[in-house]
Every structure is written in structure tokens, then in C-alpha cells.
Amino acid sequence: MNHSRLSQLVAEFVPLNRRRIAGDPPLALLELERWRELRDLLAYEFGHKPPVRGETERPLRVPTHLKVRYGESHAEAVLSNLSEGGVFVRSEAPLAIGTPLRLQIEPDDADACIDVDAVVTWFREIENLDGPAGFGVSFQNLGAAEAVAIGQLIERALRETAGS
Q1: What is the pLDDT of residue 130?
Q2: Quick one: which H or E segment has residue 135?
Q3: Confidence class of residue 54 from pLDDT cuts 50, 70 and 90?
Q4: What does the alpha-carbon distance between residue 70 and residue 144 come to, in Å, rounded to a whole number?
Q5: What is the pTM (predicted TM-score) of this model?
Q6: Fewer CB within 10 Å: N-end or C-end of the chain?
Q7: What CATH number belongs to 62-142?
């Protein structure tokens, strides 16, 4: 990973992404195209495959090591990646597809935890070449405050990964 290139991509992506999320002011068509290009370049830098033509667009998945609590037992785990649409939870005991969850994401600093509803959309039972054991979840019914908080965590993770 070229940290100088990554820093440049992040520096250009973050303000466009903020405006895209907030819609104030909305991105012009050329800005939206540049945002998509930057998202795909960052995804490539993080080792993710670009979407196949005709496939729905995927949100940018950013590497992270945030702590998360979930379920009635308040199990603790670590998030491997974070996106606007969901997270991947490392776990030796993945949950079944369709399992509804309440996640409590713990930022690395003194910020308050972010509570979000989610549902398990896929799982990997054992670690393999594709990645660690765990499960992917999709956020459900995100409010504006939660969406902004998730956006801020993504920005922070981007900057930390880029070393800026």
C-alpha cells in the first residue's frame, strides 16, 4: 500500500463524502462521478474487488479495529471493516443469516458508543484465504445522528489507515 497515494485519495475523498452524506450542498454530477472513482480506487487500495458491471454499488469498506458489543449476552468482538451500510464482526461463533442484532460500536476515544440495529447478512465459519471467521451485518433503520456518527468513524479510520 502506497501511503502517499492513499493519503492523497483520502484527502480528496473525505470532503466529497461528507457532502454526499449531508447533501448540503448536493454533489454535482461530475463530483459524484469523481466520488465513485475515488471510492473504487480506495477499495482497490484496501484489497477489495471492484463491483462487477450490473452489480449494485457497494459502499466503501474501511479497515478498522473498533470494539463492538452485540446480542443479549453483550458479546464483545472486533470489527474488521466498517462501511455506511454495515460492518464485519470477527467471531469464532458466527451468527446465522437473518439474525437481528443491536450493535454497540465503541469508538477508540472518549466519544459515546454508537447504538445501531442490524441484521446478519452473511457469515464465514472458519478463517480462510478470504478472511477471518465472523459475520457481516447490514445496518437497519439508521437515523440521521447514527449515519453522521458512522460517517465520522469511517473518516477517522480512513485517516488512520492513510497515516494522516
Answers
A1: 84
A2: strand 134-140
A3: low
A4: 21
A5: 0.84
A6: N
A7: 2.40.10.220
